[in-house]
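Worked Example 4.2. Consider the chain below.
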Amino acid sequence: MTDGPTASAGALLLRPASRGEEPRAGASRASGLLATAHADLVRGTTLLHADLHNHTDLSDGAGHADDAFACMRAAGLDAAALTDHAGFADAGALARVREVVPWAGMPVKTIEQADFLRATEIADAFDDPGGFTAVRGFEWTTPHLGHVNVWFSEDWLPPDDRVGIAGLHDWLLGSRSGDDALFGLNHPGREPLRFDGFRHEPRLTDRMVSIEVFNRDDDYLFEGYRLGQASPLLECLDAGWRPGLLGVSDEHGRRWGFEPGRGRAGLWVRSWDRGGLREALLARRFFATREPGLRLDCVVAAGDGAGRAARMGGTLAVPAGTRELAVTIDCEVPPDVATDRLEVQVLTRGITVPTVLATAPLRSGEVGEVTVGLQGDWDAEEVPWLVVRVADPTMRNLQPGPAGHPANNRALAYASPVQLVAA
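Applying the procedure from the previous section yields the following C-alpha cells:
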C-alpha cells in the first residue's frame, strides 16, 4: 500500500481453534471505504488487530510472562501489550479503602521495579516491526476508584489512596511518565467510585485515549444501569474526556489470544510498529470487537456539498442549518460468525443511557449508509458525538439496558466516537 504500513493489504488472520493449527483467512486489511467518495480519508492505513490488556505471572496472571507475546502472535494477533497490575505500595492502604468499600480487594501479587524492567525486556525481545508489535504497559489498580492502563511510559506508578486519581494525573503530567505515555480507563464503572466520577484533567484530554467497552466477554455500554447509574460511556464523555472505544481480553490465564469471545481492538495504522500503534491510539482511529478478524470502518459526513467528513475518532464541523448527517459503514465479519446480516445503530448522548438516532440493516462485506436526522435547532450540546454500533439482531445483549432499547441485542463491534462541533 503506497505511503502506508509495511503490512500487506491481504487477509487478516483469524484465531486458530487450538494451538498448533494454522490461522484461517479472515477479512481484508484494506478499508472498504477506499471504493467510496471517502477514499482520501482512509487511504494509507492498514488494519491491525490488537489486545492491549493482558496479565502474566509478573502480577496475578497464571501464565509465564516469557510465553505471552509468542502465544498472542500464534493466535493471529498483530499487536499486543502486557499490562500487569501496579498495586498499593503502602501496606495500610487497603485497610483505609475498606472504610469506604468494605468488600474491596486487591490482586494477591502486583508488580515491583524488577517486574516492570523485566516486562520491558520481554516486549523489546518480541517486538518485530512489520510483523508483530509488542508493547509494555502497566495497570494502575485500585479496588474503589478503578483500574487504568498506561502504555509507552518511561516508568510506572503504584496508586496512593490518599491522593486518589489526582495522583495518577499529576504523575502523567510529570517527568517520570514521559511525554509519550498514553492511558485508558478499564472495565469502566465496575469499581464503585468510577474514577472519582470520571474526574477530568483538561491537560490530559489528548492522552486519555480509550475506554473499554468490551472487557473479556462483557459489554460495558449499560454497566450500572440496573443500579440506577448512568452508562459509563455517557459519564466519561460528559465529563470532558474524548476517548476511543477499546476491546480487550484482560487475560489472566495461559491462553492469551485463544479464549473465544474475548474483547480486542482493530486499529487503522499508518505504520506497523510502536510509533504507528501510538499514532492510531492518539487519533482514536480504532474500534472494539469480540470477533477475531472482524473489520469495521466508518465515516460521518455533513452532506452539505463542501466535503465535510470525519472518520471514526475524528471531529466533524457541522454547518448551521444541517438537518441530516450521512454515516457510511464498512463491516466484514469473519466466516465463523453465525450471521452476515447485521444491524447498524448510531448512538449519541442520552440521560442515563445512549440514545439511538438511527438503525439500518447491513450485509457483511458491503458498504452501507445510514442517515441521521438532526431535529429542530441542532447544536453540539444536543448531539455532541456519534458512535456506530454493529450488532447481531438475532442474539440478545447479556448486559441489557432499559426494556425495548435498540441496543439490547448483541454487539459485535463499536467504532470510536466522531465528535460533532458547530462549524
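Helices lie at 39-42, 65-74, 93-97, 113-126, 165-173, 194-198, 232-239, 274-282. The chain has a mean pLDDT of 93. Compare this with Example 4.1 before moving on.
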